[in-house]
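## Example record

The block below lists the input lines for one assembly entry, exactly as stored, with component labels intact.
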Amino acid sequence: MKKTILLSVLILVSLPCYMVRAADAPQNLAIRAGRIWTVTDGVIEDGVIIIKNGKIQTVRKKPDIPAEIEVLDFSDKDVIPGLIDAHCHLGLSLDIFGEIDETVSAVTPDMQIIDAFSPLADGVKRALSSGVTTVLLAPGNKNPIAGQTAVVKLYGQKAKDRVLKRTAGVKFSLRDEALMSDRRPTSRSGLLALIREELGNAKAYQDDKPDLRMKVLKSVVDANFPVYISAYTVDEITSALTLVDEYDLNAVLVGAEQGDEIAGLIAERNIPVIYSPLLLFSRDKDLKRVVRLAENGVKVAFSSSAPETALSDLRTSSITAVKYGLDKETALKSLTINAAEILGVSKRIGSIRRGKDADLVILNGDPLQPTSTVEMVIINGNIVYQRQKI
Amino acid sequence: MMRFGNIIIISFLLLLFILTSAFGEQVVAIRAGHILTISDNPIENGIVLIKNGKIEALGRNVVLPEDVRLIDANDKFVMPGLIDAQSQLFVMDSELNESRTIAPELNILDAIDPFIKEYREVLAQGVTAVCVAPGSRGLIGGRSAVLKLNGSKNIDRMVLKADATVKAAVGVSANNESASLTRLGHYSAIREALIATKVYMQRKEKADREMAEYNRKKAEYEKKDSGTAAEKKEKPKRPARFRSSPSSDVLAQVLSKEIPLQVEAHRVTDILNVLRLADEFGFNLILDKCTEGYLVADEIARRKIPVIVGPVSTSFVDMPRLEYRNHSMSNAAILSQKGVKAALGVSGRDGASSKFITLAAAMAAANGMDINAALRAITLTPAEMFGVADRIGSLQAGKDADVVIMNRHPLDARTQVEMVMIGGRVVFERKSQQ
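Predicted structure tokens for the full assembly:
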């Protein structure tokens, strides 16, 4: 018995060591780049980014580089901010078919998804190699009120480096998947009724007896704590808008595949959309939907929903959107600053700017061309991925 | 009476249509900024001359006949029609699979629905031909075919080549369960079928020989009709009728190298097993999918086995599958750098996926495949694999005029296809206002 305890302690202690590939302390680096796509301040040709203590210290055309700093020469390459996958389930289950929902009860707002996150999971490395540095972790779509999302980086030893937001909001699901035959709700109107009942209870809830679920939902109805509402079809989105109006929710739409049909209604409420992955077998008219949504003034971010779909490459979605008419600037924003703003972390990430975290991706060409590939990924100033020469 | 009138009008219009399509605009010339011939070096500022549905000539100094219809593509790219070597177009999902069977006699052509609308979207991306094969659940699933997207609703007119390959699959989990023993079973079941075919071929050869012998003796006997009674006693006995089997006949064509065996294999063990099968039986092998091929590229290259790589990215697959656990986007690049002849397929979930063939090629190029090799991998290479390179796959005099005009380089994200021709006929033209 003692031996097993000792063994498990050993394993637990050695685990983080195994994770670390880059140097422990963030390096001070200078990156010379052919093009720096700052996203918020235009494109700088032949510029330099100086990284100090994991933060971006300077972004300029020709700064003085202190002598002691190591210089990475990427003068024929492109640098963009680390990409943000605004909705996924990476590292949340033991294998790709594992469960990510707590389906015993339909209402689980107290569940915190970050408790299930494993930074060593298979998909994490894959996402990193495709240039994703930060993700929104979310529960699935099987519970009407599912649990709390989190914003995490895909690398970082200490929690304070890795976790941007332990809880970023509560995920709601208005999708068919939330209906089950063996528990409430079993119908679409039942689903709305259940959410109203819970939100109503939360409004009336006094702190007299401790109730974690009510506490979370009270912050939703009283304190503007965000809700991520999963809704795909026009009727699901309409229901979401109804809830937003009734309870004055601080909402983000997740999925919103048919959102373009009522883009005006979404735009006038200033509700951003985390768009569902563009699947590479959809009809042309469906692939054009996200373009129309963005053109109608809705702020859009992209997501992979990985590993539920095998779309490990977030950039593919935006490249496909460009193919179907999205302008390249919006496409790049959707992968970076839009997502950062929607997730409420734009002070730290989402663009290449002095003072922000040094989360950078180096590509061998235009980030929105399918012929370009990711050469290096940097998180908090650490080189966490480097493409192997073949 | 009204109906009779209608019939006359319709027949007249039909006749007019047939006449115009048969005799009108026989000679077309495309004046192009960039001609990507694929088989030879690109031609800048050249002309592609098309006559009677075939490429008559191409180059910088082509003499134009007088009544030629000129298409101006001065600032554009012209290339041969694209081919998706792993398509499901025109085939309903459920008809791709016959579970766990040795059924080479099945023919994908029997499951073709020419009325599927998605083909227009695929055509609009420059794809002019697809190879459709049975799915991966049958051990030997049946015969594939190369189809043209020429808009015909007559399957016979769509078919460029029937019996292009016989499709087999090993180690593909039907329900995503890891099953090593099942995979051994797949291997041995296919091997058993091939051994049985060998025996069948020997028996058939023997029967043919006996029959020939009998016919010879019979003819001799009948000639001797006027002979003595003693001679008459030796009337030759007809040998037992040989019972041919449609299934074995197809596999016999595989063993006699008339049809290649296209085997889907993902993992290293399965790929090596398939290579052993090819070593043992000496059929023409095409490796399909070949997900972990990059790990045994030398083994594949040494045997000069062609490979259809796909999906290039797991983005093309809608659900995670165990077979793709070690998927690498560099697979095609590594294989082709080692000298393996590699075609690319979309291998999407749905027929409509084929419209992303240039995206697949671009991704392969992004991950180290030479750009020219990537373009060849969606044109000439698959045409060669399926034995249709005399007709399609490159811009060369004498080949079918299956031509695509694009406004940019084919692998650019913003590229729009302007025009598609199949057999010299314009089958897609982009509306100018779009």
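DSSP finds twelve helices and 15 strands in chain B. Residues 1-80+395-434 of chain B form a domain with the Urease, subunit C; domain 1 fold (CATH 2.30.40.10).
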